[in-house]
Amino acid sequence: MIEKSTRRRFIEGSCRLLGLVTLGGTAGLLTERASANAVYQVDPGKCKTCDLCRTSCVLSLSAVKAVNDFEKCGYCMLCPAFMDVMSKPDEKGVPTGKVCPQDALKRKVVGKVDADDPNNNYYEYVVDEARCDGCGKCVKACLPPAGNGSLRLEIRYSRCVECNECAIRIACPDSAIVRVFVPGIAPAKHDL
Amino acid sequence: MDSNEKNTDTTRAKARARFWRVWFGPVAAVGALAALVTGALRTRPAPRAATPPQGQPSSTPGPPGAPGTRRVLPLAEAPAASARQFKRHYSQTAVLGGSASPGEFRRSLLGISTGAADHIYVLGDDEVRVFDPLLRRVRGWRAPDHAACLAVGPDGRVYVGAPGRVDIFDGAGTRVSGFPTGEKDTPADVTAVRVIGADVLVADANARVIRRHGPDGTPRGLIGNLSKTGSFILPNRSLDIAVDTKGVVYATDTGRHQVTTWALDGTPLGKFGKFGMSAPEDFVGCCNPVNLALTPDGMVVTGEKMVARVKVFDPNGTLLAVIGPEHFDPSCIHIYLAVDSTGRILAADPARREVKVFSLSQPPRQGERA
User: How far is residue B251 from each of residues A14, A174, B295, measured CA to CA in Å?
Assistant: First the structure.
């Protein structure tokens, strides 16, 4: 014999259903998170290159490094991220000062080399990560309209020690350090 | 309770039980699936998370410079040009678009040219729009997909450049012809089109040369390939051109900070300009000038980025006038230029999506505000 259905039973059933759905969703969420490694990364859309990446990281040399996107790079002779365009020019009119205080941005001529006129050359800019302290001066100088915006800051997973709460994230005034889930990325293990 | 009431209750209970049997499973499954999908979307790694090692190109372009993240260097200040008096003085006389008429260009402003009777042709919002000299809209039509630049020929036809091709419209906006440009595997990145006589000149920022075509698209040669490097140097991937009535082609060589001149057959004729951050005649930053036009009396008008300004030179490179950065958005990476038959300079600011009109005027007296 079928039991008489009441409003109370209907509400009970609905609550059970809701509970099941919530449990399922939470389980899915947790499974998804458990299958990936959570790492911190710089969101270049939010980053204002305020220099706190350099000073806030628990490592003596910050895990944040400048990275050059070669597809966007203009291979400029007068790269505003490499040379301080406002510095005193030499006899050829080329600025003598450099933007990077660590001299971490290196350049070399690519393609055909014209030794007589440097304006005829294309230059490839590479960040020396052993020197880069993540101050972001080059990134700032490369922003449009001065440059093509090819440089950006990134947390290098080979250096990041994955603190429970990233010190840069706490310090960042622009919430530019975000938590991302990347399968197969393991935090670096080394002494601070 | 009589038997009729019992039967009714039993029927209702059966219906409810059936309802639950039919709907409970699907609803629970859909709910769980939705929660899973939501969770997965929320935990999807940011596109930049998987970083290539240093020294290898990254496949994802970075957001700096994207709409909404526009930032301007503190460096972007004009070298002190205002203290110097120049031979010519321009003052702003009209504005089209921007805050003056906000509905005019809502999404984009990509090119400007002048035609017969000083009508102004503007490429913006995926349309070619025609204005009379008083900036009243006359007509308009839909531009080809991905249109990047335009020019008006002496015959009144409108040439619209898009990646890999040039489309030709009559003055009323009917497409009359068109032709592909560039190599088979590497179509031209068309950043400027100009028409001189029976020649259509196409600036190809991909190959970093100017392609000379006949009116039907027949290739007639290249301009710029006889330089020492075999091409222009374009760090900002943009090449602008202008051509005078004698057939002398002016081109921006942004990486060299020069305006270069060429004969139609590709012979280099001359150049002027150099890098510098202090003298107003110098071109600043990594790559300038970015845009170019010619006045009816043969003077060269240049548009610059970083310090967004317009300058007027004589053909030898002597600076005649500066239209300062106070007129333009500092984040401009282009100032598209055109000049009408009366010598008015039309400068299109794509960041503010407005066209400013500058006319020759008397220089302000000392102590008077410009």
Answer: 73, 42, 15
State which residue of chain A sits closest to B238, comparing Cα positions.
Answer: A74
Count CB atoms within 10 A of the CB of residue B129: 20
Domain residue extents for chain A:
36-182
Predicted TM-score (pTM) of the model is 0.79
Give the whole-angstrom CA distance, residue B320 versus residue B312: 5
Domain A36-182 class, CATH top level: alpha beta
Q: Which domain holds residue B176?
A: 104-304
Antiparallel, parallel or unpaired: β B209-213 and B199-204:
antiparallel
3-state secondary structure of A123: strand
Residues 6-45 of chain A whose Cβ lies under 8 A from any Cβ of chain B: 10, 13, 17, 20-22, 24-26, 28-29, 32-33, 36, 39, 41, 43-45
Residue B158: inside a domain, yes or no? yes
Predicted pLDDT of residue B40:
52
Please state, in angstroms and rounded to a whole number, the distance separating the CA atoms of residues B5 and B108. Answer: 73
The residue among B48, B72, B227, B288 with the most chain A CBs within 10 A of its CB, best to mutate, is: B48
B106 touches chain A (CB under 8 A): no
- Is the dihedral angle over the CA atoms A95, A101, A104, A105 positive or is it negative? negative
CB of A74 within 8 A of CB of A90? no
Side chain identity at residue B116, one-letter code: A
What pLDDT was estimated at residue B2?
57
Partner residue facing B255 (CB), from A119, A143, A146: A119
| pLDDT value for B368 | 52
Q: Is residue B232 part of a domain?
A: yes
Place of tokens 């590709």: B266
Tens-digit pLDDT profile for residues A58-115: 999 999 999 999 999 999 999 999 999 999 999 888 999 999 999 999 999 998 888 8
Chain A hits for B69, CB-CB cut-off 8 Å, are 45
Helix (H, G, I), strand (E, B) or coil at A68: strand
Cβ contact B45–A36 (<8 Å): yes
Dihedral of CA atoms B210, B118, B338, B181 in degrees, nearest 10, equals: -20
Interface pTM, i.e. ipTM:
0.77
Residue B199 lies in a domain: yes
Whether B3 has its CB under 8 Å from any CB of chain A: the answer is no
CA angle A110, A111, A113 (to 5 degrees): 90
Average pLDDT over residues B109-133: 96
CATH code of the domain covering residue B205: 2.120.10.30
The Cα–Cα gap between B28 and B42 comes to 21
Averaged confidence pLDDT in chain B: 85
Per the structure, the count of domains in chain B is: 1
Cα A166 to Cα A59, A169, B43, B304, B360, distances in angstroms:
11, 5, 18, 42, 59
Chain A residues inside the 8 Å CB shell of B17: 2, 5
